[in-house]
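Example complex used in Figure S2.
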Amino acid sequence: MAKKRKFKKGVLPKLLILLIGFLIIIFLIICLLKKISTPKYKEYTKSLNYMDTVIDIKLYTTNEKQANTALEEIEKIYKHYHELTDRYNAYDGINNIYTINTTQEVKKLEIERDLYNILDYGINWYYKSNGLLDINVGNLTNLWKQYRDNNNGIPSNDELFKISGLDIKNIVLYDDNQILTGNVNIDLGALAKGYATEVVHHYLNSIGLDNYLINAGGTVLAGKNIDSQKFKVGIQDPDNSASILKDGNKDLTLKVSNKVITSSGGYERFYEYDGVRYHHIIDPNTKMPANNMKSVSVITDNAMLGDALSTTLFLMSIETGQEFVKQFDGVEVIWYSNDNEIIKTPGISKYE
Amino acid sequence: MNKNDIKLIIIILIIAIMILIVIAISDNNKNTKKALIYYDNNLIKTIDLNVEETQEYTVEGYNGEVKIIVENGKIKVDEENSPLHLCSKQGFIEKNYESIVCLPNKIIIKITSDSQEQYDTIIR
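Predicted assembly (476 residues):
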């Protein structure tokens, strides 16, 4: 009864009630239409295992056929570069790094254009990095790998410095499709993942697929996210694989869109001897695992550049690296020092 | 205000509620459920569990291949090589934070609903 009286007493004119009612309905209908008209993005994922790493692919698209074709094509690209750069296995019908390294005879060996291009890129980076990023260090890699696999001891100075063939000038390329064998032992570990990922990047651009997130170990290729949000990428703590690197109290997270993040650190493939950690990124000057920092992460537009750059920075002191990166436009860097200090280029704040 | 006015208000309210329900339902299928597979504490694979048809995956465990089957929102280990076969005997799991642990194979499978995940990916 009380309710009824309240209505009777109310001063709201009927018209106003009607108007508010219709406004609510119109508002809700607009919401509904907006919902229906926004296409539904679906996530298409695939995990691959190539180049000694797990490659996680996430594509977001409204077009299932496009997604499945793209996933297949991306796998083909990674598989192709995996086979070309594999140091331990031969594959039917192609001359790869294994073929090159194991051909004792001094002769011109025919190679695919794709392999030629990575080798050419690697040689250029040798000079760009003042000899720090060296692809002709396969003999050195092998020696360290032997000790790592046996998990016992480290190579002596004698062993390390008597290794022969460690000269970038021994890699000679001809006519866009040939390499001189017999005096080289190539290791493309520092470049292959980034190179293949950049080929994937080009492929995705060419088919107009804009929304993707690919994580190939130390290389993350981030396209556009489906909402207006950016992709949130956490950087792993080199000392504890279960947690994220801390910057003060908060986790170190990079928010990116259409960027590439690459990381290099001594925590991926390592073994311990006498309480010291020996990892797989070897300084060609000391012939020992680099010990300038715990890790370094780089934001770039190009995975090829990013991968080469993060390895190069890992092989330099942080101070030298801070100067070195100034020649690259739009590149931002986070160093994690041996004293657990986080050092950033000023532009990193754009991504925090 | 007479009876007709009240009827009108009720009709308006019903229409509004119906539209709200439609919006709520169309939002519902956003729920993505995933299985995370770890080998030796490292995440090696993420599997989307929202699949119509049955899918098979194999991952490399410590004692060889581990065969995994995914079926509308559920996941199980089908075959593995271990003394007691505990994890293939466990059968399907489907709830958030349920897990299958294959100690001899160093394989762990976890389910997460990623609507509240803090990161899109972690760089190592």
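The interface with chain A takes residues 1, 5-6, 8-9, 12-13, 15-16, 19-20, 22-23, 26-27, 32, 41-48, 118-124 of chain B (CB under 8 Å). Chain B is about 25% helix and 40% strand.
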